[in-house]
From TrEMBL:
It comes from the Bacteria. This is AB hydrolase-1 domain-containing protein. Residues 1-17 form the signal peptide. Keywords: Signal. It comes from Achromobacter arsenitoxydans SY8.
């Protein structure tokens, strides 16, 4: 009887060993985070000039009203993706900071939320229709909401609020980082804003970290050639609007009307920009990939579009009698797809966000420098 009992107990184990479950299918999506016991609470931050004040929900690792911020030396601002999950982006950044004790003491982490017009719980605050904020569009005009404000202006106002020597007496630098839709906003803002120079004149550094956007703002009418041999004007018969904003400089938004188009690249080249491209973000059918013809003109996948744009910058910088200094760095993050946590947590990601001496985790993805073709 004992023998038969042992056999009965071992039978299921043997069956499982002989017929193992298949590996889960990799949809190139991040594993959902477990639900928190206590929901993370955002803070209402008032921004804007007198007469046009508005509130934005912002997650932060300090109480922005009560805490003493005079010892803060670095501010890390992270911009969420199309899901508007600013709480998750905040947690990713906060965990990276916590893993670097020297940074944990002097780094302020901010994650603003560009709420949708249908989102509940954000009444009286600026809100946008769908993902229009990623292009710099104005917030909606509606009863109970503040007057429309562009998402570019929100970034201007947020960064200028940090340039406050009374509250942030020790502040030395700001990093503005985004992934996916957030990277689209950060990239276009980095090209078009007029705030960068003012902050630098006040002694602050400003870095833009751009990870896996679906498309880029081209500064000429050229796009990658289909044969991979350089750049040329795209066929308007295929996409008549390929060079209109948000993909090109035709019909720039009101925010950029006073910008000198002819000097956009020279100014952008001088700004501190880091591109992070996922080596496995190469699915042309990804459900969140921009498939408009203006985006398709830039390449078939996020990785192709990113590498094409990086090489395009080197081509522009080398043109003319005198080359333009390019202060941009570009990295391919090995084996990582469309995953903000792993992108920012990679070796080059952590260093871009927190400085060259910052330490990444033991499982952090490795990075390869993307060099100009032919070098």
């Amino acid at each position: 009887m004992a023998a038969s009992l042992v056999a009965a107990l071992l039978a299921p184990l043997g069956a499982r060993a002989q017929t193992p479950l298949p590996d889960p299918y990799d949809y190139d999506e991040a594993t959902p985070a477990p639900k928190r016991a206590v929901p993370l609470r955002w803070q209402a931050v008032e921004l804007g000039r007198p007469g046009h004040r508005y509130k934005m929900p912002v997650y932060a690792n300090r109480d922005l009203t009560k805490d003493d911020l005079r010892g803060i030396k670095h501010v890390l601002v992270v911009i969420h993706g199309v899901k508007r999950d600013a709480d998750h982006y905040f947690e990713t950044a906060a965990e990276l900071v916590a893993a670097n004790p020297a940074r944990a003491r002097d780094t302020l982490v901010l994650a603003p939320r560009f709420s949708g017009s249908i989102d509940s719980g954000f009444g009286g605050m600026a809100a946008w229709r769908k993902a229009s904020w990623e292009d710099g569009a104005d917030s909606i005009q509606a009863t109970g909401r503040p007057a429309p404000v562009s998402s570019f202006q929100v970034l201007d106002d947020l960064l200028r609020s940090l340039d406050d020597r009374k509250r942030l007496a020790s502040l030395a630098g700001i990093v503005l980082a985004g992934h996916s839709a957030g990277a689209q906003l950060v990239h276009r803002y980095a090209v078009l804003n007029n705030t960068d120079g003012a902050l630098r004149r006040d002694g602050l550094t400003l870095r833009y970290v751009i990870a896996n956007p679906s498309s880029y703002l081209y500064l000429t009418n050229e796009r990658p050639r289909a044969d991979g041999k350089g750049y040329a004007p795209y066929e308007r018969g295929i996409c008549p609007t390929y060079n209109q904003y948000k993909y090109g400089t035709d019909k720039l938004p009101a925010y950029a009307r006073e910008t000198d188009d002819s000097r956009l690249f020279v100014r952008y080249a001088a700004r501190d920009v880091v591109y992070l491209l996922g080596g496995a973000d190469n699915n042309p059918e990804h459900r969140l990939l921009d498939k408009a013809c203006g985006a398709e003109a830039q390449g078939a996948t996020r990785l192709a579009r990113g590498t094409g744009y990086v090489q395009y910058e080197h081509v522009l910088a080398a043109r003319g009698a005198k080359s333009v200094p390019l202060r941009h760095a570009s990295f391919e993050v090995g084996g990582v797809g469309h995953d903000s946590k792993r992108m920012f947590g990679s070796i080059c990601g952590v260093r871009a966000l927190l400085g060259e001496d910052a330490q990444a985790g033991s499982t952090a993805a490795a990075c390869d420098i993307i060099k100009p073709r032919g070098k």
